């Protein structure tokens, strides 16, 4: 099923743009030695015995293996896509048709917040390739370096988020954690470094940011005005009631 795009002008008020550049996490580090072929086989057998959604992993003779991961999309900024292009069909995916290359026109959309995309990958597929694959599926033409893949670990009632290196292999992490997404999940977010690199954004993106900021400003002004209008109304009612009472 192809997830729909949500056009910018019809989206409900997005989260404040001023709060989008604060999600900074340290890259993941794994100092464990690589598993042997026998260990991989045992882990895959254990994984498949607990997998209930027919998304089992398959081991190849060369020691590599394939399987599925699910990625939550939590992008709070609009993405750039080709203008006037239909969603990718199954035929396009099989034939690897690059619809984005058929036009130079661009527009910006909000992708559905917290949508989930399932990917079939191999044990050698890197984080960088996962990001590029996700962007291609949604025909996003933004620079892949603007995005980052995070792993979320659920432990003791807390959710710990950790940014993955572009060279990490998500399927290996999935194998180690098991099939339960309540234990480990993957999330695609904006790649925040703590400093906003405005030069990395295109002119349409910057114009969209200005539009969002102006809308946020107007909404805040209206909220304050409504608050004080309501307060003024109550004061005037109280004054009328006190003046109408006999002295």
UniProtKB/TrEMBL annotation:
Location in or out of the cell: Cytoplasm, Cytoskeleton
InterPro entries assigned: RA_dom (IPR000159), RASSF1-6 (IPR033614), RASSF5_RA (IPR033623), SARAH_dom (IPR011524), Ubiquitin-like_domsf (IPR029071)
UniProt-listed GO biological process terms: apoptotic process; signal transduction
All copies of domain Ras-associating, residue ranges: 107-193
SMART domains for the chain: RA
Annotated ranges, domain SARAH: 195-242
Keyword Zinc: yes
UniProt entry tagged with the keyword Metal-binding: yes
Coiled coil (residue ranges): 214-241
GO CC, any one term: microtubule
MF terms (GO), sorted A to Z: zinc ion binding
SUPFAM superfamilies per record: Ubiquitin-like (SSF54236)
Keywords: Apoptosis, Coiled coil, Cytoplasm, Cytoskeleton, Metal-binding, Microtubule, Phosphoprotein, Zinc, Zinc-finger
Transmembrane segments: none
Pfam families recorded: Nore1-SARAH, RA
Assembly and binders: Interacts directly with activated HRAS; a RASSF5-STK4/MST1 complex probably associates with activated HRAS. Interacts with KRAS. Probably interacts with Ras-like GTPases RRAS, MRAS, RAP1B, RAP2A and RALA. Interacts with RRAS2. Can self-associate. Interacts with RSSF1 isoform A. The RSSF1 isoform A-RSSF5 heterodimer probably mediates the association of RSSF1 with HRAS. Isoform 2 interacts with activated RAP1A and ITGAL/LFA-1. Binds STK4/MST1, inhibiting STK4/MST1 autoactivation.
Protein name, per record: Ras association domain-containing protein 5
Organism in which the protein naturally occurs: Diceros bicornis minor
Upper classification of the organism: Eukaryota, Metazoa, Chordata, Craniata, Vertebrata
């Amino acid at each position: 099923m192809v997830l729909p795009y949500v056009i910018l002008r019809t989206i409900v008020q997005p989260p404040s743009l001023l709060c989008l550049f604060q999600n900074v996490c340290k890259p993941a580090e794994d100092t464990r030695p690589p598993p042997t072929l026998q260990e991989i086989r045992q882990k895959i057998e254990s994984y498949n015995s607990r997998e209930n959604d027919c998304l089992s992993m398959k081991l190849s003779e060369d020691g590599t293996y394939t399987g599925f991961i699910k990625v939550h999309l939590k992008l709070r900024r609009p993405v750039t896509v080709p203008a006037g292009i239909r969603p990718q069909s199954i035929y396009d995916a099989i034939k690897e048709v690059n619809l984005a290359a058929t036009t130079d026109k661009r527009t910006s959309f909000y992708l559905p917040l917290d949508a989930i995309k399932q990917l079939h990958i191999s044990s050698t597929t890197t984080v960088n390739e996962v990001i590029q694959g996700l962007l291609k599926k949604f025909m996003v033409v933004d620079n892949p370096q603007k995005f980052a893949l995070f792993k979320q670990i659920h432990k003791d009632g807390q959710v710990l988020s950790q940014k993955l290196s572009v060279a990490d292999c998500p399927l290996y992490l999935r194998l180690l954690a098991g099939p339960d997404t309540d234990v480990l999940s993957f999330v695609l977010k904006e790649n925040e470094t703590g400093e906003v690199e405005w030069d990395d954004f295109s002119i349409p993106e910057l114009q969209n940011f200005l539009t969002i900021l102006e809308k946020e400003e107007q909404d805040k002004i209206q909220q304050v005005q409504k608050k004080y209008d309501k307060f003024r109304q109550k004061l005037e009612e109280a004054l009328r009631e006190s003046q109408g009472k006999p002295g």
